[in-house]
Amino acid sequence: MAAETADADTEPGTQSQLRERLYPFAVGVRRTWDQFTESRLGVTGLFIIAAISFVAIFAPYIAPHPLEWQAFGNNPTFQQAGQLPHPPAFGDPFFAPLGTDSLGHGILTQLIYGSRTALFIGLAAGVLSSLVGVPLGIISGFYSNTWVDEGIQRVVDVMYGLPFLPLVIVLVFINGVTTTNIILGIVAKSWLNNAIVIRGQVLSLSKRPFIEAAEASGASDFRIMWRHILPNVLPLGFIYLAQDAAFAILIQASLAFLGLADFTQVSWGTMLQWIQVEGYIYTAPWWLIPPGLMIALLAASFYFIGYSLEDVMNPGGNS
User: Fold this and answer.
1) Cis (ω within 30 of 0) for the bond into 76?
2) What mean pLDDT, rounded, does the chain reach?
3) CB 232 within 8 A of CB 214
4) Where in the cell is it found (predicted)?
């Protein structure tokens, strides 16, 4: 009976401590969200991403055909006769609202399924860049002018000296052309801006009275970084997460256009690469324009969110 009472007393205490630790994060996120929703540009970007995410999740139910579907069936005579790629058709002789490619696959279907790859690469690269860059930036700024800071900054200097796209191409070529390796190749460079900007923010925060008060009270370095510094740099981290996601989408499309993509998965970049290989860039606009527009739209939506978050962080900076 006494053990049960002790457990009952311990559980509320643990929950209280957890709420106390998460409270600064909740307050920071709530404040940023309230200010963010006042920006029409940011809300527009969020709406676009939400719509594309909905399409990606329910792709099998939204797409007019499976990915394996081919216009006219698997009959090469139609391609030889100039019937493929076929412009948009609405039931005669088949239903393909955005036309087909040279193999008879529906462009709209590929566009819908390609949203999955674009979102996955963008969000994965953005999150991983933040998970690497933000902690390193906090540590570097907190231990400024020490061997820890010097070591991190020397790595940043070396990495900054390497050109982005050639480095990613080399890393992908060495490790193999897979979606995972493409993401890791992008993250290998994209975390640098996070680390540099977060470090500068931490250097500014370290001079604030509440940080000095925490140090005077005997709080550990980890506690200061976790409870007092991290909540204050989170909005800035979200800005670069959005920007890194947009950049990753553009880099993946560039790699795919160069032939460095996982062709086992349909993506907007591979659609552009295939039309270039097949030589229909000037004769099949229904095949060329949609994936290009979707790449631009999704990347722009992330930039809209990043711009709006930056406006929240620095109201006078974008005026």
Assistant:
1) no
2) 83
3) no
4) Cell membrane
Q: HSE on the CB side for 295, CA within 13 Å?
A: 21
Q: Which residues contact 292 (CB under 8 A, 6 or more apart)?
A: 268, 272
Question: Domains plus CATH for the chain?
Answer: 26-69+106-313 (1.10.3720.10)
What's the DSSP call for residue 178? -
What does the alpha-carbon distance between residue 55 and residue 237 come to, in Å, rounded to a whole number?
27
DSSP E strands, 94-221: 95-96
CA separation for the pair 234, 192 (Å, rounded): 16
Concatenated DSSP letters of 229-287: IHHHHHHHHHHHHHHHHHHHHHHHHHHHHTT-S-TTS--HHHHHHHHHHHT-TTT-HHH
Give the number of other Cβ atoms within 10 Å of residue 153's Cβ.
16
Looking at mean pLDDT, say which of 12-26, 204-218, 289-303 comes out highest: 289-303
